[in-house]
Design goal:
Elements (H helix, E strand, L loop, with lengths): L2 E6 L4 H11 L4 E10 L12 H11 L3 E5 L6 H18 L5 E3 L6 H13 L3 E3 L7 H10 L3 E8 L14 H6 L13 E7 L6 E11 L4 E12 L2
Parallel strand pairs: 1-2, 1-4, 2-3, 4-5
Antiparallel strand pairs: 6-7, 6-9, 8-9
């Protein structure tokens, strides 16, 4: 019998690849997505609006569990609200105590997540851990996933990359200092179509906007779901 899991969902390619990996493994059964939102209703690092995340969850046919946090929330508050969201999910699905992450190689981030989940009585699952990020990026594209760069750290990557399609041409254009999956925070992505999708999302793009002077975000004016 498969074990139920939640997938930590940022709206980006690493979360999508982690979702695809556990869905292809009969040991696991994905019952929903978990996302963390700012008071403005956005995924903090990616800058994606809640409407985008909701549309993604609908396209994937999965329920969405939300954790709402104030800006610069202290760890204690984050832990309390995450614990409450996990408890609510576990109350709906018997045996649910595993959260899936798309982390690739940052050991300190993984250790922090595992310690936090342990205090909530949960465990983390990292199905992509330690894999070659260049190979993962190429496989993401070849498997039929589609994504756009929605946030760029301009201290690590030229701001002009914001809004570009995550495709083979982009991988060739990235500087050698940039991880192909942006694992060190060089960039973040928004997935709008893929092999698990029920249709695709027609993202209505606005102009790329500056954040605090360091980050450039792609303004997504709205989302239309297109059935195939």
């Amino acid at each position: 019998m498969s074990t139920p899991v939640l997938v930590s969902w940022s709206g980006g390619k690493d979360a999508a690849m982690a979702l695809a990996r556990v869905r292809s493994d009969p040991r696991w059964h994905v019952v929903g997505l978990l996302t963390t939102l700012t008071p403005a209703g956005r995924v903090s690092a990616h800058g994606l609006a809640r409407a985008v995340i909701v549309a993604q969850a609908q396209a994937l046919g999965l329920p969405l569990f939300e954790v709402s946090l104030p800006d610069a929330a202290p760890n204690a508050l984050y832990e309390a609200r995450l614990g409450a969201a996990l408890a609510a999910a576990a109350a709906r699905y018997q045996g649910l105590a595993t959260l899936v992450f798309g982390d690739l190689f940052l050991a300190d981030v993984r250790a922090w997540r595992e310690a936090l989940l342990a205090r909530c009585g949960w465990q983390g699952l990292f199905p992509l851990w330690g894999e070659d990020t260049g190979a993962l990026a190429r496989r993401f594209i070849s498997d039929g996933w589609r994504a756009v760069l929605c946030a760029v750290d301009t201290t690590r990557l030229d701001a002009r990359f914001c809004g570009r399609e995550f495709d083979a041409a982009l991988l060739q254009a990235l500087p050698a200092s940039c991880d192909p999956c942006g694992e060190r925070g060089e960039f973040h992505t928004c997935v709008y179509a893929g092999p698990l999708w029920r249709g695709s999302l027609a993202l209505r793009r606005g102009r790329a906007l500056s954040g605090d002077g360091r980050f450039r975000y792609l303004a997504l004016a709205g989302v239309d779901r297109v059935e195939h």
